[in-house]
Amino acid sequence: MTTTERRDAAVGRVREAEELVARLRGGFAGVGIVLPSLRIDPLSYAGDGPVALVDLGRCNLDTALRLSQVLEGQGAGHGG
């Protein structure tokens, strides 16, 4: 794989990750959850084989509790 091909592949992965972060942000907002640190980890796509990891970040206890409740509702088939 050439340098240009690797760069293009990395750009594609970053774009996919940016779109996913936007979808996650919208989905969380739809159930009343805001994760202020939600982002792409910039170091994850800085190497030869970039992976573009999504960093869900840190949140306060109230947000963690709300997230837990939503996930438990989804798991129980309640639809959140």
Topology:
Blueprint: H1 3-30, E1 39-40, E2 54-55, H2 61-75
Model description:
- The chain is mainly alpha-helical and 80 residues long.
- The chain has one domain (3-75).
- Helices cover 54% and strands 5% of the residues.
- It has two helices and two strands.
- It has helices at 3-30, 61-75, and strands spanning 39-40, 54-55.
- The protein has a two-stranded antiparallel ribbon.
- The protein is elongated.
- The model has no long low-confidence stretch (mean pLDDT 84).
Structural class: mainly alpha
Largest sheet, described in full?
2 strands, antiparallel
End-to-end separation: 44 Å
How many structural domains in the coordinates?
1
H/E element sequence: HEEH
With strands numbered from the N-terminus, the spatial order across the biggest sheet is 1-2
Q: In what range is the share of β-strand residues?
A: 5-15%
The parts where pLDDT drops under 50 for at least 5 residues are: none
Strands, count:
2
Report mean pLDDT, rounded to a whole number.
Answer: 84
Shape: elongated
Radius of gyration, in angstroms, nearest whole number: 16 Å
Helical segment count? 2
Q: Helicity level, as a percent range?
A: 40-55%
For the structure shown, list the relevant keywords.
single chain, 80 residues, mainly alpha, two-stranded antiparallel ribbon
